[in-house]
Amino acid sequence: MSESTKENLPLCAQCSVPDREKICLTSEGRGPKFCPTLHNTEAIEQAKRKLSDSPTLEFARKASIQEAECYINRDKKPFVAHPVKPRLQEIIEFAGKMEFKRLGIVFCEGLRREAGAVARVLKKQGFEVVSAVCKVGGVPKEEIGLRDEEKIQIGAEETMCNPLAQAELMNRSQTELNILIGLCVGHDSLFFKHAKAYTTVLAAKDRVTGHNPLAAIYTLDSYSERFLKTKIE
Asked: Rounded mean pLDDT of the chain?
């Protein structure tokens, strides 16, 4: 069966197999009929072949090492997960492992204080830091076809978020790792697509939850039940 057919699409988020029995977690495990580990083997093998590229392999290897180092008492039996490092520390340590020197901060104007604090931390840790705010360039929203009634503040001058310019600035600055802080939905996607260097996310924007998007997921049975009971337009 072709791996592009609808019947063979990966649906891992719907898997109900217990963790201790999952084929992706144990070699003796099992999976449902939509399990990509069992039924999309060509895609899995193609992904493995990409690891023949030495820089990609080294990046993947050190990312896995960083993942493990976020826990303590890994040698104790039975193993009990005990994470000890916040994401900011992870980013610092991983950038060090990769021997990166120049880091880029790409941020939303609404999180400028946070971006400034992150920049201070990274500089203190020995990195060269370049940064670009979302509004860089001061391009009016009219230039991308917005009508006045489509702005945040109707009747006011507004400049567009400019992730393409942010990506171009990072590319020209030859950053080795970009750190995203709170870009809007869609704007972040454009940055990911057009930035040449790898990008990691320190903060995902959520205007309602104080930039904690999973809050809406954790409250699906209470305050956020509208996502399950009504069509979001």
From this structure: 96
